[in-house]
Write a sequence for this structure.
């Protein structure tokens, strides 16, 4: 069971009168979204202003991340998001900007449309998503929580239709995850590790 009190207390102890930028990292289906929603609600109950960003809201159109000349794992890790654009328009502005405009992905239309988010000067910003500790983004966080969940458990949480396409997991998702774990070492670099089994 996740010890939300421990995480909440750790964050509250770090928050002063300025912004605090929290990263919730973890591989696919590790429980990041559920964890982030609960954490945000707990911080709100403590009287904190909270703003949450979900990295999967900012993926690019399908034509830019599928059927390219690159291997599938590379597409997922490097092309699923415009990494540099997010660095410039999101991460580099988190500590100071009064508002942030971002390319929000509409999955039904498979297109991007800008959305603007207003930020208070003393809010706690929570960014949740996979591969958050990649080199381009890691230094923008004040505190990173990594949700650690075994691959087998995460795979159980997939839909039946997703599970039927095992080749896609092997060639796309799991290879990208292995690259992240080996090249970036998120467990070693996170400020806190939470078992989300």
């Amino acid at each position: 069971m996740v010890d939300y009190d421990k995480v909440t207390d750790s964050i509250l102890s770090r928050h002063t009168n300025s912004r605090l930028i929290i990263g919730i990292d973890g591989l696919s289906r590790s429980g990041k979204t559920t964890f982030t929603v609960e954490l945000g609600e707990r911080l709100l109950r403590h009287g904190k202003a909270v703003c949450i960003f979900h990295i999967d809201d900012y993926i690019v159109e399908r034509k830019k991340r599928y059927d390219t000349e690159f291997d599938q794992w590379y597409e997922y890790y490097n092309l699923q998001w415009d990494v540099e654009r997010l660095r410039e328009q999101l991460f580099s502005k988190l500590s100071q900007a009064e508002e942030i405009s971002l390319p929000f992905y509409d999955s039904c239309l498979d297109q991007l449309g800008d959305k603007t988010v207003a930020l208070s000067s003393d809010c706690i910003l929570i960014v949740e998503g996979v591969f958050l500790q990649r080199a381009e983004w890691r230094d923008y966080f004040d505190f990173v929580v990594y949700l650690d969940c075994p691959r087998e458990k995460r795979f159980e949480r997939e839909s039946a239709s997703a599970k039927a396409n095992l080749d896609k997991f092997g060639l796309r998702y799991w290879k990208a995850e292995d690259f992240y774990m080996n090249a970036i070492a998120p467990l070693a670099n996170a400020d806190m590790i939470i078992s989300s089994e």
